[in-house]
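Thread: quick sanity check before group meeting

JM: Hey all, I'm pulling together slides for Thursday and realized we never actually wrote out the predicted structure for the chain we discussed last week. Dropping the sequence here so it's in one place. If anyone has concerns about the input, flag it before I start.
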Amino acid sequence: MTEQEKKNFSPKATKVPDTYIIIFLVVVFAALLTYLIPVGSFDTREVSYQVGQQTKSRTVLVPETFELLTDEQGNPVKEGIRLFEPYGEVGFLNYVFEGLVSGSKWGSAVGVVAFILVIGGAFGIILRTGAVESGLLTMISKTRGMEVAIIPVMFFLFSLGGAVFGMGEEAIPFVLILCPVCVSLGYDSITALLISYVATQIGFATSWMNPFSVAIAQGISEIPVLSGAGFRMAMWFAFTLLGIVFTWFYARKVKQDPQRSLSYQSDAFFREDLEKNEELRGDFGTGHMLVLLTLAAGIVWVIWGVVMHGYYIPEIATQFFTVGLVIGVIGVLFKLNGMTWNDMATSFRDGSKDLLGAALVVGMAKGIVLVLGGDSPTDPTVLNTVLHYMG
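JM (edit): ok, ran it. Output follows.
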């Protein structure tokens, strides 16, 4: 952001507390609840369901079996959390570390934290080559006036991905690609988030065949697969259309006045990077083309793995690491941006560093669940009690 932009920019909204502060306050509230609400638990059972030609099983809780934990006198037990717990237990002050290392590589939090850091490092290498900026500048110069098409097309495709194969976390790497694209077209990073991750969540919520939600629920309920698909398809189309319209109006507002963007300050990184690489517009060579083709092939590989083989966090992270590694080698061999072997390591580290804050948020948020006793339905926890009475 230039000095003049900084002078002209004045936030239109009251400054909100930092994300870490908000999470800490929620942890404090959760800790207080442990002294006020008794703990309870559910029984669980195994159910089988059909996904295509495969029979799978899943452990589900039995809602009517909820029971409060009581003492010898029959009084409900409240297990107020202690300030600090040794030996790997969860206390109030343990929430950050325990949240970061909880779970498994297949999900929150440690798996998602590692996923974010690896993805960040891979894209650090990809962006270091300068091929993305060069390709964007070339594309912009050749498609001037047609940039409005990116919003409905990308929103539709990502929403379809959420509806068909439950695309969710898989969209995170695509956000990193679309942020500079949208900023270069006069929009902002929030537009990139709307047409990618938010679109997948609309598709996920209104899906007629999502194997991770609809198929499981229909199997558990013992109703035919694709039951009610017509209604769900209509809902998906309607909400996707609403999402496209909302995003289009927001993006148009930002394009008319960039300072109205909610991410105007943070997007300065992309604007400055594009301005710095403006000279690359006429220098789009073989190396740049190979980088973009490798990135496109990697995206196809990820989609194929998710759809055909059910790849998830560990596999997708490794796929993008591989793509970043190959692109780094191309960058060194073709001397893109003067790239060297050491630059590969440095850019991987810097890319991971840029997403470290987001990774910490994931771990801290998981700490809230741990303070409430964890997410096991069979263990007596405050969270089980809250969920039971809210349901």
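AS: nice. The first strand starts at residue 40 and ends at 51. The chain has two domains: 41-79+376-390, 111-364.
JM: adding both to the slides.
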